[in-house]
Amino acid sequence: MFRLVGVLSLLMMLSVVPAHAHGAPTDPASRAFLCSPGQPTASSPLCRSAIAAGLPSKEWDNIRLPNVRGQDEAMVPDGRLCSAGLAKYGGLDMPSADWPATKLKSTDFTYKATIPHQGSFRFYVTRAGYSPAAPLRWADLDQFLNVPSPPLVNGSYEFKVQLPKDRTGRHLIYTVWQNTDTPDTYYSCTDVEIAAAVKPAPPAAQPAPAAAPPVRAAPPTQSSAAPSTKPSAPRSSTPRPVPVASSAEQPPSNATRFGISAMVAALGGLAVLGGIMLWRKRIL
């Protein structure tokens, strides 16, 4: 009897102890996970500062608030989003560009559930122009994914995400896990480096079509008649002037001289003959 009462008392004591460790992002990893024991980044200056300020590094998966019921902005004040307003996690809120950041290599996210719960996940990313050196505000965030009741795979929740295409460089992913089987909601900050989208290479220039080979002219047909070797003179419509010999330039030939002499002699003979005939007529 006393043994049974002892067992029941022990169970009642255990039931009132709050559950320890529940879940947080591990790929890409949250600030709390990167500052947990065994992580190489736990020795980074900001993690050491957060632990010195009271961060319970072993409880990296227990940043939660009860009875939020979706009223996150009302329950978690600006500048304290990474700690969910819990004083012991306040070191995670320190604004700095020196927090260890994960270079995103894929769109697969993993949220490790150390104690699984039913619930939905909401993912946010900082807007363009975000500065990690300024305190994080709700106005700095854009929600890009909401996943209700995802299945548990090998102790983790897995997600295929699609970040806004205009986000590149240093940003912060803010994850909210709202339970439906407990009154708790969990919060996490994850620093990331988003690579610029690779632009597709322009299409290769098409080679110019090969030029067609020149068409060779057929050789002229040989005529049966032998071609004349003397080129013909070009014809002209203008009449060619008849050349006239100039006496000044060329002396008269012998034939010309003989003709002239004969004509003069004949004329002289005619004159003499005429004179004789006139004389005889007067005498008679």
Automatic annotation (TrEMBL):
<dbReference type="Pfam" id="PF03067">
    <property type="entry name" value="LPMO_10"/>
</dbReference>
<feature type="region of interest" description="Disordered">
    <location>
        <begin position="203"/>
        <end position="252"/>
    </location>
</feature>
<feature type="compositionally biased region" description="Low complexity">
    <location>
        <begin position="213"/>
        <end position="248"/>
    </location>
</feature>
<feature type="compositionally biased region" description="Pro residues">
    <location>
        <begin position="203"/>
        <end position="212"/>
    </location>
</feature>
<keyword id="KW-0472">Membrane</keyword>
<dbReference type="InterPro" id="IPR051024">
    <property type="entry name" value="GlcNAc_Chitin_IntDeg"/>
</dbReference>
<keyword id="KW-0732">Signal</keyword>
<keyword id="KW-0812">Transmembrane</keyword>
<feature type="domain" description="Chitin-binding type-4">
    <location>
        <begin position="22"/>
        <end position="192"/>
    </location>
</feature>
<feature type="transmembrane region" description="Helical">
    <location>
        <begin position="258"/>
        <end position="279"/>
    </location>
</feature>
<feature type="signal peptide">
    <location>
        <begin position="1"/>
        <end position="21"/>
    </location>
</feature>
<dbReference type="InterPro" id="IPR014756">
    <property type="entry name" value="Ig_E-set"/>
</dbReference>
<keyword id="KW-1133">Transmembrane helix</keyword>
<dbReference type="InterPro" id="IPR004302">
    <property type="entry name" value="Cellulose/chitin-bd_N"/>
</dbReference>
<protein>
    <submittedName>
        <fullName>Chitin-binding protein</fullName>
    </submittedName>
</protein>
